[in-house]
């Protein structure tokens, strides 16, 4: 009997893939309508995404097969969703992020900030959290964590080392930047889940006091949590943000580009700052206690260890040498990209997009994706060294041109193509829900929720999404929830962004489990943490996050997105009554 169960478990993925489509067949057979056909596709894909019986990106291709066969959408209409404007923004943003990583600019920024912050316990925690959150705003959460964790452990080894270690001041091999092909690997599941494969190699451990162990745990968690928190601040910081932008554009094609880089930053950046500070205070209280005087290093007699830890950071920063031409060029292009994003169509004044490239309505015809691709192409053109006549060391007597800032080989190795397909699958599902009438049907069924106060609705939905994202990919979570939330908002005459924005942020609150998100898995693979440690710290942090998001959506988000009215672009056949009075209060 035991062998039978073991066999079933070993072949569980095959069984799920074969049996689930058959078990769900009664739905389209007994209810032969387009709504039921679309529901069948969504339920099947949701179960495959949750069980991971197939790779998430492979499941995302199902609409290309099922929607044309079921008469929901033409194949040409489905396929165009896999490379829409949001996916182009994703590609362009990643091109720039790959260039930043390729030339080690992110490591230079990290070390410089840590030198400024110092090594007192509380300030050291804050320094690592600020650096990790800032980098995570622009490059992937996974890459940021993979770089910051070895730096944190190297500093901790000096802080907690023996006097002999301090006198020797030896280099720490764990400090080196972890590359994707290094021995320490993480099974990455589409930017949403990950499983540690092998722990990072480490030297024989010395006996640590309970206080040192707790500080090590606190430092590890502060890195992975701040990577997840930092990603919410920018539109390209983490994939769920782009899912929201794409879903809003797909479900509400008449919207005046309401979710763009500038509007998102105005809403999410203050949220990120508040959540980061609260996380810093909570981790201090949980792992270091209430003795803030000690946490800030006043009256301590461990200056030798602190100096040694500081020297580790200073030595590694010095090894980077002066900024190269490539680093300066990438920095200038990166700053130019951010400025162009902010000033394209800010909303409170006419941006360069409105003035230089307006359409019939005065809106910018150039999108954030246009800007990202423009800067990326410049990186493929610009040389990484000042052009000059240099000899080719491999072929004496021949001249060699310097390589460009970015090349396709580097891009193809580091680009997460699976996320691109996963995004496209989500947009195809949203389009299918709209065309089949499933969205309108769901809206009718959710109409009784109108009796619940909007703030309570948003709070409960955030809790639901934050719980769900602990077990499923954050991309899959937002892909499944956002179309339903849009239908619900239309049914109860509530601004769609009032529920879609907070739930998108809540999808990034994966703090409790190592498999919830890649940063958690990377930190867990380095050792020193138990699942219970992460769950204990992450549980209250999830609550803090939901409360912070609820505060944001009921305060400064209202004027940014005009949430107090039901917008004309959100109308449908079932929401005509909402438009009779366009000043109907939202939240």
Question: Tags for this entry?
Answer:
587 residues; mainly alpha; two-stranded antiparallel sheet; 30 helices; 2 strands; 64% helix; 1% strand; globular
Describe this structure in words.
With 587 residues, the chain is an all-alpha fold. It is 64% helix and 1% strand. The protein contains 30 helices and 2 strands. The chain has a two-stranded antiparallel ribbon with strand order 1-2. Strand 1 (186-189) and strand 2 (193-196) form a beta hairpin. Helix 26 (496-506) runs antiparallel to helix 28. The longest helix has 28 residues, at 261-288. The protein is globular and about 75 Å long. The model is unreliable at 162-205 and 581-585 (pLDDT under 50). GO terms for molecular function: alpha-ketoglutarate transmembrane transporter activity; fumarate transmembrane transporter activity; sodium:dicarboxylate symporter activity; succinate transmembrane transporter activity. It holds the Pfam family Na_sulph_symp.
Overall SS class: mainly alpha
Question: What does the radius of gyration come to?
Answer: 25 Å
How large is the share of residues in beta strands?
under 5%
Helix content: 55-70%
Number of strands: 2
- What is the mean predicted local confidence, pLDDT? 82
Biggest β-sheet strands, sense, barrel: 2 strands, antiparallel
Termini gap: 57 Å
- Count of individual helical segments: 30
Shape: globular
- Order of strands across the biggest sheet? 1-2
The low-pLDDT segments are: 162-205, 581-585
Transmembrane segments: 12-31, 43-67, 87-105, 117-139, 261-283, 325-344, 452-468, 480-499, 505-527, 539-561
Family: Belongs to the SLC13A/DASS transporter (TC 2.A.47) family. NADC subfamily.
Protein name: Solute carrier family 13 member 2
Region (Disordered): 183-203
């Amino acid at each position: 009997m035991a062998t039978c169960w073991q066999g079933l478990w070993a072949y569980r993925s095959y069984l799920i893939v074969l049996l689930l489509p058959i078990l769900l067949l009664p739905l389209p057979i007994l209810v032969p309508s387009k709504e039921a056909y679309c529901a069948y596709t969504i339920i099947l894909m949701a179960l495959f995404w949750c069980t991971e019986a197939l790779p998430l990106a492979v499941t995302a291709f199902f609409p290309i097969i099922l929607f044309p066969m079921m008469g929901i959408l033409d194949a040409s209409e489905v396929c165009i969703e896999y490379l829409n404007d949001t996916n182009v923004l994703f590609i362009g943003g990643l091109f720039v992020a790959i260039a930043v990583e390729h030339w080690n600019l992110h490591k230079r920024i990290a070390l410089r900030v840590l030198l400024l912050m110092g090594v007192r316990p509380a300030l050291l925690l804050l320094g690592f959290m600020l650096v990790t959150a800032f980098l995570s705003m622009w490059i992937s959460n996974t890459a940021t964590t993979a770089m910051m964790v070895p730096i944190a452990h190297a500093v901790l080894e000096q802080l907690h080392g023996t006097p002999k270690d301090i006198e020797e001041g030896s280099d720490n091999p764990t400090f080196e930047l972890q590359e994707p092909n290094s021995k320490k690997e993480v099974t990455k599941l589409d930017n949403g889940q990950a499983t540690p494969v092998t722990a990072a190699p480490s030297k024989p451990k010395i006996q640590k006091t309970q206080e040192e162990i707790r500080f090590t745990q606190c430092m590890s968690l502060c890195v992975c949590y701040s990577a997840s928190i930092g990603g919410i601040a920018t539109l390209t910081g983490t994939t769920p943000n782009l899912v929201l932008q794409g879903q809003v554009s797909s479900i509400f094609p008449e919207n005046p580009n309401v979710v763009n880089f500038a509007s998102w930053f105005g809403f999410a950046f203050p949220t990120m700052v508040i959540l980061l500070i609260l996380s810093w205070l909570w981790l201090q209280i949980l792992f270091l206690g209430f003795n803030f005087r000690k946490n800030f290093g006043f009256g301590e007699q461990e200056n030798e260890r602190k100096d040694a830890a500081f020297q580790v950071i200073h030595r590694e920063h010095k090894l980077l040498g002066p900024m190269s031409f490539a680093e300066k060029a990438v920095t200038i292009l990166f700053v130019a990209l951010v400025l162009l994003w902010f000033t394209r169509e800010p909303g409170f004044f006419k941006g360069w997009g409105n003035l230089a490239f307006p359409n019939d309505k005065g809106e910018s015809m150039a999108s954030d994706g246009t800007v990202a691709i423009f800067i990326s192409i410049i990186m493929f053109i610009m040389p990484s060294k000042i052009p000059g006549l240099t000899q080719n060391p491999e072929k004496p007597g021949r001249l060699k041109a310097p390589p460009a800032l970015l090349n396709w080989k580097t891009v193809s190795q580091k680009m997460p193509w699976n996320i691109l397909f996963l995004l496209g699958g989500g947009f195809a599902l949203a389009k299918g829900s709209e065309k089949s009438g499933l969205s309108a049907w769901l809206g009718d069924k959710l109409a009784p929720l109108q009796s619940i106060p909007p703030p309570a609705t948003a709070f409960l939905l955030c809790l639901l999404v934050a719980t769900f994202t602990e077990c499923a990919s954050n991309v899959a979570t937002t892909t499944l929830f956002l179309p339903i939330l849009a239908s619900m908002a239309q049914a109860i005459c509530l601004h769609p962004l009032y529920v879609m924005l907070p739930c998108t942020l809540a999808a990034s609150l994966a703090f409790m489990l190592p498999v919830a998100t890649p940063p958690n898995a990377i930190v867990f693979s380095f050792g020193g943490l138990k699942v219970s440690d992460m769950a204990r710290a992450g549980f209250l942090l999830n609550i803090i996050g939901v409360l912070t998001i609820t505060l944001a959506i009921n305060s400064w988000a209202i004027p940014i997105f005009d949430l107090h009215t039901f917008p004309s672009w959100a109308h449908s056949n079932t929401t005509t009554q909402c438009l009779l009075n366009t000043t109907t209060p939202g939240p």
